[in-house]
Design brief:
Layout lengths: L8 H5 L11 H51 L3
């Protein structure tokens, strides 16, 4: 290598101090806003997943009923 005492690739290009984020009222307000939006998103996702499971259950029930009917017709031939 070229003998520099850099510990990472980023340190080679940024010789300034690393930014440190300290919690402030502004960032806490933003955090609360994002948590609220995230919660709303989970609510929507849960509703969509619930609807999908209901459709899957209904489709499976109809499919199994169709198979049962076909099987019973095939085995009742005398």
């Amino acid at each position: 290598m070229d003998g520099n005492n850099y510990s990472s690739w980023a340190d080679q290009w940024d010789d300034g101090p690393d930014p440190v984020t300290v919690g402030s009222k502004k960032s806490n307000g933003n955090t609360a806003k994002y948590k609220q939006k995230l919660g709303e998103g989970f609510g929507k996702t849960k509703a969509v997943a619930s609807t999908g499971v209901k459709k899957l259950k209904d489709g499976t029930s109809v499919g199994l009923h169709w198979i049962k009917t076909k099987y019973s017709k095939a085995t009742q031939k005398h």
